[in-house]
Amino acid sequence: MLLKISLVYSPAPRQVREWVLEVAAGTSIAQTLAQCRIFEEFPELQIGRLSVGVWGRKTTPGHLLHDKDRVEIYRGLRVDPKVARRERFNRQGVKRAGLFAKRRDGGKAGY
Questions:
Q1: What residues form the membrane-spanning segments (predicted)?
Q2: Neighbour order of strands in the sheet with 2-12
Q3: Which domain holds residue 43?
Q4: Does residue 27 belong to any structural domain of this protein?
Q5: Three-state SS across the chain?
Q6: Closest alpha carbon to 97 in 85, 108, 106
Q7: How does pLDDT run across 32-81, given as a tens digit for each residue?
Q8: In this structure, are residues 2 and 23 in contact, taking their beta carbons and an 8 Å threshold?
Q9: Is 26 part of a structural domain of the chain?
């Protein structure tokens, strides 16, 4: 029995590469990646250090696939989200962010 699998990888922001594969029942994520030959196209990926998931839930490369699964390969974060938010807030300034973005005439800040 063949399973239809979708494999998705985003090599850079706003770029998505998708493969639609048919694999045999009982195939693992690692076997699917080898069959897809993604490592030839993206040599920076390494099977041992790969972060993968199925439908947004993180899992291991040994996970067995089911029909119509969507396998996702995750990139590492370049910047800590808390640091990025703090820097964005500092660039925008206090008066343009959060509670202070909208203000009624004659009203107090944040109300």
A1: none
A2: 15-24, 2-12, 70-74, 51-54, 57-59
A3: 2-74
A4: yes
A5: CEEEEEEEEEEECCEEEEEEEEEECCCEHHHHHHHHCHHHHCCCCCHHHCEEEECCEEECCCCECCCCCEEEEECCCCCCHHHHHHHHHHHHCHHHCHHHCCCCCCCCCCC
A6: 85
A7: 888 887 877 777 776 667 788 999 899 988 899 999 999 998 887 778 88
A8: yes
A9: yes
